[in-house]
Amino acid sequence: MKVKEVADLVGISVRTLHYYDEIGLLTPDTVTESGYRLYSDDNLELLQQILFFREMGLPLKKLKRL
């Protein structure tokens, strides 16, 4: 799935997904030659976990260490 599709599916911004990639928290399985980030089902599962822990108030730095 492309970034916009994932963002719409889970209700977060495209910028948030880009940021998670920048800090190494959620790296897409594939980046095309033209720079499109493509997310797999495994990526979506990890994203759901990240969003759950964020909802619980866990900071991104701690999430990254987990």
TrEMBL record:
Q: What's in the keyword line of the UniProt record?
A: DNA-binding
Name the PROSITE patterns on file: HTH_MERR_2 (PS50937)
InterPro entries hit by this protein: DNA-bd_dom_put_sf (IPR009061), MerR-type_HTH_dom (IPR000551), MerR_fam (IPR047057)
Q: Which residues form the HTH merR-type domain?
A: 1-66
Among Pfam families, the record links this protein to: MerR_1
Q: Does the keyword Transmembrane apply?
A: no
Name of this protein: HTH merR-type domain-containing protein
Q: Which organism is it from?
A: Paenibacillus cisolokensis
